[in-house]
Amino acid sequence: MMASDVLERGRGMKSFTARTESLLMRRIGKAMVAILGVAAMVLVALFEAQAQEIQITGPLAGAPAVRRLRLHRDGRFDIAPTASFSMLDEYRRTIMPGLRLNYHFFDWFGAGLFGGYGFQYNAALADELQEKAIDQRDCTRNRESMPCKRTAVSLCRGGNCLAKKQLGQLEFVVAPQLTFVPFRGKISLFSELFVDTDISVFVGGALIGVKERKDCDKGQCVRDDSFELATRITGAPTFGLGFNFYPLDFMGFGVEYRGLPFSWNTSGFDNAGGGPNEDFPDDKINSADRSFHFTSLLTVFVNFQLPAGIEISD
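Above: the chain sequence. Below: its structure as tokens.
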């Protein structure tokens, strides 16, 4: 093959490639223009759809979102006997019978008062501490033993003395509160039994009565008479969540969770007050020995609404 033929074929291939690339670029350009046109049309249509006011015609024109809504709270008093149980206690658990009173200005908003008085019993840790650290050591007769000397400030002496003389107790709670009802509806059981229900959120402030080990100074906290409980009233925020069910127009029932964060000395130990950061025992019992606890109550209740008749919206 002559060199001139090779050159001619090379020029032909280059020309064919150039024409192919030119055709491909024109087709790609047309496709991009078509895609951009379709995208612009879609955006315009979406904008017009969002800007357009939906006009409802027929029997639903001007109708409210909900009809025949049963107003279990609006303009009614709510009286609820309660039983509360403390949760996650270290040493002493509390059962607190009480009462909750509410008045609801609207179906979604009300104000009221919660109160209860506590009765205590030992948690497993308190019983184990009494048995192993106090009863088995018998420090009433072995005061000079090393374990008894080292625990003289923080552990009482005698049978059942922890519960009677040392461990903190939740005595009472009085809490004014505001109640909000963001959700309401019905719950069905097997699509046969329907119960009106709502979820309530409450927030307020609480006065809390606690019994703690009384204060004592260095040198006095080893004496038997330093192990006594004294009542103290403190304040705390309170808030929680409730689930409410209304099987009857004038009566309901439900369950609530309540948080009460505050500081107190639940153990009666000499926990702090000494050292550079007051993080070490100082042989005294005072406010430095209190620690923060997120005290929690789980409450069950039966509530009665007055007046007994219920209102129903249009």
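Confidence is low (pLDDT under 50) at residues 1-18.
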